[in-house]
Structures are given as C-alpha cells and as structure tokens.
Amino acid sequence: MTTERTPADGSPLSIDELRGAFDAVTEAVFVHRPDGTIVDVNAAAADLYGHSPSALRDGAVETLSAGVDPYTHEEAVRRIERTAETGEARQFEWRARDSDGARFWVSMKLSRIDTDDGPRVLAVVRDIQGRKEAERRFQTLIENLPGVVYRCRNEAGWPMEFVGGRCAELTGYESETVESGAVSWGLDVIHPEDRERVDAEVQTAVDEGSAFEVTYRIRTADGSIKWMWERGQHLDGPTEGPEYLEGFITDITDRKRYEDRLEAQRDDLELLNQVLRHDIRNDLQLVTAYADLLADECDDSQIQEYIDTISEHAEHTVELTTTARDMANVLISDSDPESRRLRPVLESEVDEIRSGYPEAVVRCESIPDVEVVADDLLGSVFRNVLKNAVQHNDKDVPEVSVGIERAEGAVRIRVADNGPGVSDAQKESIFGKGEAGLDSAGTGIGLYLVRTLVDSYGGDVWVEDRDDLGEGDGPGAIFVVELPTES
Asked: Is residue 480 pLDDT above 80, yes or no?
C-alpha cells in the first residue's frame, strides 16, 4: 500500500506551498528527488549540518552521511529511492556528518509526497547525539557490572527481551543468543534440579508484590556448574499484554564454596564440642573419682604423691575441655547478643571460685541488678578472669576482690588480685591465643576466649596496675571487663 500526501482537495502540492510549510518546522527537513538529490531544506536543517541552505540546495555539499558502512551516501540514496518507489514511510537511526567532518547520530523519517513537479521524498531529521551518548554510557555501566542485567517476560522459560552485561563471561552464551530464544534462561541455563524451586520462589514474590532474591545453579555452555544470585522485581506489561520481570544476576560460586567450607567446619566443631562435653569429660571425671578412691586407701606417701599428680592434671584437663568447649560454642553460635542479668551470672561464678579454690580469699562487693548485652557464655568471661587471678597468683594466700562501677551506657567489673602483676609489654598480648604458655597452670586460651566474647558483646577488656597494695606485697593487677548495658 502506498502513502501519498496531497492537499485536501487532492491536487499535488506546489514547491512554494511545501517550502512555506516546512520553514515553520523547528526540526530539520530535507526534500529529495527520487534519485536522492536535495531539492530544498529549511533553516533548521542548515543549522544542524552547519552548511548554508543554498550550498545544500545546489548540491555543493558532497555528502551528509558519515561515509562508513552502512552509513554511506550510496546507502542513503537507496533508502530514499525505495521510499519514493513504494510510498511506505521509513524511520531509522543514522550516522551523519556536519561541515566540520564531525559524526553525530540522527533519527530520520522518510515519507513520499506528490508535488506539481512530481514525487518527492520528505526527510525529517532529529539530532539524537545526546541520547546516543547517554545510551553508550548506560551500556558501558552495564558491561562493567559483575553480572547480567535482564528484562524478560514472566512466562515459562523466562523469554529474555534484553540481556546486558557479562552474559558470555558468566554462561558461555552471547547475549544475542539468549535474547533470540535460541537458548532459554529458564529451560536451558538454570540447572534442572533448581528450576521448579526458583519458579515457585519468584512467583510467590510476584504474587505478594515484593522484590525477589533467589540463588540457584546454572549449567554453562561448556557443561560446568556455577552458583548464581539473582535479585529482581515484577513489572506490569501493556494492557492485555505479558507481565515482565527485570533484575540482576551475578556469579557467587566462590562465595558458595566458602559457605560450604564454613558449614563443614561448623559440623566438625559441633562434633568436637560434643566430644568435649561428653566423652572426654566423662572419662576424666572417672579418672578423678578413682584417684580419690586410691587416695583414701593409700598410706604410702610416695604413691600418694603420684595420685595427687594424677588428680591435679586430670582437673587441669577438665578445665581445658571446659574452655575449649566454650570456644567451640563461640565459633558455632550464630545468635546475636541480647539482654542478660549481670547479678546472678557473676554471683554464680564467684561462688564457684570460692568452692574450687578454698585456699583463696575472694571478696565481692554488692552487685547492681543491671542488664547487660551478652549471651549464654557470659559466665565463661567471669570464670576465666577469676581463675586467672587465682591460678597466676604467687602468694601463699591468693586474694581476689571483685568491684563494680557504673559508667554511661556500660558497667565495669573490676577483678583485682595480689599476684605478680602484668608488665606493660604484656597488657595487650596477654589476651592472645595461648599466651599462658605450656608451663602455666592456666589453659592458654582462657583470656583469649574472654577477649573474643567481650568483643562480640560490643564491650572491652583490659589490664591495669594495682596501686593500693602494701610494700612488699607485689604489684598486683586489675582486669577490667566493660559491658554495654541495655538502655
């Protein structure tokens, strides 16, 4: 079907009528003969290309095309000829060239009109260089994203209408291959074992009107398996048309492997924790019990010394398993600290120290009934600090004093002893792993556990010098545990 533009009475337009019409148009307008030569232009066309109207009309300008395939003068002429022949309007984007030789993008619409001098082709030209530059910047942004940006119809197989970014790098398939439907993301790329789950999760989110996040495996073009993370949302399509999804997909294979390793390590820690809690502790308690029975029945001082050594080392190993068990719990736990009452926890640990070390003098001032940010392992913090004050004490009668200070948004528990003190060089390193050493009565990880737990609560722990002891009593040390309080 041809399209011919003529006046309302059906007579052909005159050139003067045509010029009067397009001179009032702000967009660039060219009038061509069917062979492509320019018959007339308006002022906007001259301004756009940087040539005078007369130079354009008399053919002094050799070409307005970019001169590179397919944006050549010859190709432009062929398009004008086809429009003149068929009468069908054509619209396309074109690379043009101005008077300085600079290339720029235009949108060009061709249509045939009949004049009293015969058929002509009207070309309406718009400068779209700004839009093209914005598109190029957007495309560069997409290409630099670590994944795939997509828009697809919300139908079986997720037919893709736009795929940008690193599709080939992630999947082995070019974006055009996925957009054309030759490869279906939902049916060919997503792993068969994950398709049903992913579809269900996406549709649930769509039905609820929320964005969706899914993880799944894909099978790449070479058959390898990768893990993907996808975040997307639902878009309403045209009336009576399809619904759409748009989103971003990125490779999380390395992260997934790391998470799997962490999960395996967590399982191993849970097994270790179970062994520490039950098997080793039960065996050691049995050793201790039999050692106590032997001690009651034995009168030989030499053998009694051996039995005491067995009991001492068995008790030390029980203590070690307790601390190791608590450390395993720290590594396994994925819960966040919450509110805990300070008084019952601290009182319980003070009582345990008094019972376990009857030779020591343990004083504790009144404990305020405050709630601190902590978890179920809070008791382990005080147990290790208190034991450290007794076990590393070189006095015949170890003395330990527990004081409490209120601070803004926090409470400080100060555990002072009359032991040898801590040198300035050790005040920070003493909280490191294994700082106690092999010859120490301590476990070597007790204070490290204290620092780990207190840090997780958002608190702090440090050592101060004690300056209230009498001459000759040794320097002593104060371990300060600061815990945030619940507001």
From this structure: yes
Using an 8 Å Cβ cutoff, are 89 and 83 in contact?
yes
Distance, in Å, from the CA atom of 429 to the CA atom of 434, rounded to the nearest integer, reads: 10
Structure confidence at residue 193 (pLDDT): 94
Look at the block and give the residue holding tokens 């996406």. 202
Q: Which residue has the tokens 């396994």?
A: 332
**The dihedral sign for the CA sequence 426, 428, 431, 433:** negative
Q: How many CB atoms lie within 10 A of CB 136?
A: 11
Q: What share of the chain is helix, strand, coil (3-state, %, to 5)?
A: 40, 25, 30
Amino acid at 388: N
CA separation for the pair 291, 298 (Å, rounded): 10
Beta bridge partners of residue 105, listed in sequence order = 95
In the predicted model, what is the mean pLDDT of the chain? 84
Contact 66, 103 (CB under 8 A): yes
Q: Is the pLDDT of residue 336 over 80?
A: no
**Relative orientation angle of helices 378-391 and 301-332, to the nearest 10 degrees:** 150
- The tens digit of pLDDT for each residue in 433-479 reads 555 443 444 445 788 888 988 998 999 999 998 876 544 455 789 99
Task: For residue 277, give the 3-state DSSP assignment.
Answer: helix
Tell me, what's the pLDDT at 11?
58
What are the residues whose beta carbons fall under 8 Å from the beta carbon of 149, sequence distance 6 or more? 142, 162, 163, 164, 165, 246, 247, 248
Length of the chain counted residue by residue: 487
Look up residue 99 and give its DSSP letter: T
* Of the candidates 212, 216, 219, 232, the residue with the CA atom closest to the CA atom of residue 148: 232
- Would you state the structure tokens that stand for residue 256, as one six-digit string? 């997934």
**pLDDT > 70 fraction of the chain, expressed in percent and rounded:** 84
Torsion, CA 471, CA 473, CA 479, CA 480, rounded to 10: -40
Return the structure tokens found at 336.
Answer: 């966040």
- Closest to 230 in 3D by CA, of 173, 156, 168, 158: 158
